[in-house]
Design brief:
Shape: elongated
Number of helices: 4
Number of domains: 1
Order of helices and strands: HHHH
Radius of gyration: 18 Å
Strand content: under 5%
Largest sheet: none
Helix content: over 70%
Number of strands: 0
Distance between the termini: 11 Å
C-alpha cells in the first residue's frame, strides 16, 4: 500500500471534530454576549447576535460535514469563516466589564483557531488524498 492510499478509505475525522469545537465556543460566546445585553437596548442587537450565530453555526456545520469527506472547496470556506471569527474580536464593545470582554475575545479566538486549524489540516489531507487517487 502506498503512503497516502489509506486516505481513500477513511474519513477526515480530526478536522471534523475541530470544526465542532468551533460550534461549542461560538455558542458559548453568544450566550455570554446575550447575558450582558441591557434589557432597554435589547431590540435589534439581540436579533443581530442570534441571526449571526445561526448563520455561522449552519455554515460551519456544512463545512464540517464536507471536510469530513475531503472536500477542498469547503476547506476554503472554513478558512474564511475562521478568519471572520477572529476579526470579530475587533468589534467587541469596550463598554462592558474587562472580565466579560476577555471571555468573549478568548472564545471568539478559540473558535476561529479551531476552525482555521481544521480547514488547514483538511486542505493538506485533501491534497494528499487527491495525489493518492491519481497514483
Amino acid at each position: 500500500m502506498k503512503q497516502y492510499e489509506k486516505l481513500l478509505y477513511q474519513s477526515n475525522t480530526a478536522p471534523y471534530w475541530l470544526a465542532m469545537l468551533f460550534l461549542v465556543f461560538n455558542t458559548y460566546q453568544t450566550i455570554i454576549t446575550l447575558n450582558m445585553i441591557d434589557i432597554v437596548t435589547a431590540g435589534i442587537l439581540t436579533a443581530e447576535i442570534i441571526l449571526l450565530n445561526i448563520l455561522l453555526s449552519f455554515l460551519v456545520f456544512i463545512v464540517a460535514s464536507e471536510i469530513k469527506r475531503y472536500n477542498l472547496r469547503w476547506a476554503y470556506f472554513g478558512i474564511g469563516t475562521g478568519a471572520f471569527q477572529c476579526l470579530r474580536t475587533l468589534f467587541v464593545s469596550t463598554t462592558i466589564s474587562r472580565v466579560m470582554r476577555i471571555h468573549i475575545i478568548v472564545s471568539l479566538l478559540m473558535a476561529g483557531f479551531f476552525l482555521l486549524t481544521a480547514a488547514l489540516i483538511s486542505m493538506n489531507r485533501s491534497k494528499k488524498r487527491a495525489f493518492a487517487a491519481k497514483g
